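**User:** Everyone, produce a chain:

**Assistant:**
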Amino acid sequence: MADLSGIMVVSVEHAVAAPYLSGRLAEAGARVIKVERPEGDFARSYDHLVHGESAYFVWLNRGKESVSLNLKKPEDLEILRRMVAKADVFIQNLAPGALARLGMPMDGLRRRHPRLITVSITGYGEAGPYRDKKAYDLLVQAESGLSSITGNAFGPARVGVSVCDIACGMTAHQAVLQALFARERTRRGRHITVSLFHALADWMNVPFLQYHYGGKLPERSGLAHPTIAPYGVYPCGDGREILISIQNDREWRQFCAEVLHDADLARDPRFATNPDRVANRPALDDVIREAFAGADRATIASRLDGAAIANGCVSTMEDLVNHPQNRFVVFDTPTGPVRMLAPGADVDGRLPLFGRVPAIDEHGAALRAEFGAPEMASAQE
């Protein structure tokens, strides 16, 4: 699939959020030129666990061309200017104001190149009192209120993946695709700014609304849903755990009759409706734990499936590696092929073919020759 074939993207990027955006564009067939600092994107060194490569880097940088530029050098800055002049999309996630100080403010680029779509990935946005504040994923998890509702009674916890970075990259990807579509009609680009804070704040709207209008303070509930019951994890007789989810009172009645084998329980006034069940969650949990203690997880899962009750295992990483529902893609890296979990979207029964993960400055010579001034290209030779 090459839906974005012919689209050229230049991205001065590092870490996760901006590479997530440009990586999805590369996946769709765009030509993506990744501009790295001389020492390379620091995400290359987050770990060395994928036969010497960083797990973060191989996930986010497939199919890109890499050029290493020192933007403090006039000749390298000029190469970037020349690339941007031919680009459809220009992405950057440098420190606030860094490009403007180099003489490349986004508004100036848009005036010079009206069809250009510019994207700034920031921590807190381009306005407001936090605009110049440094921001990384875990800091924003805390600042956005996510940490206050994540964890359990013993305290807050970090979401186990870089959810703010990913939310930001996903939000930016949606906005860029919309801008490309709009440009087909208007012939004009636009400027997009997406921050880690605002992307995640949008995801926080349910607890925000519940608290702002209803005065309800969300509780940290571990592997249990704060406003639906029963919806959480329970141990089975073999010591393994299972998650169940009851979404309505009809499912609750089915659960009582077909899984707990106690149809009368559905009429117990403590548990008749979801608000009742939430208010009496400790007693409800005791009933379910007692019922599940008499069978192993496979048996409980079979009963739940038979009653059409949603359930799932609490998978370890080993379970995930061997999960029967997995789909995989294989692509090349500087140190050999990598097999990885496939992207979520399956289009017409096909998964995208991924390009190679580049080494630092792997395409530097070719890109300098393509975008450098004639005298620069001669100097390279």
Summary: Confidence is low (pLDDT under 50) at residues 375-381. The longest strand covers residues 31-36. The chain is about 40% helix and 15% strand. The chain has two domains: 8-204+325-380, 231-313.
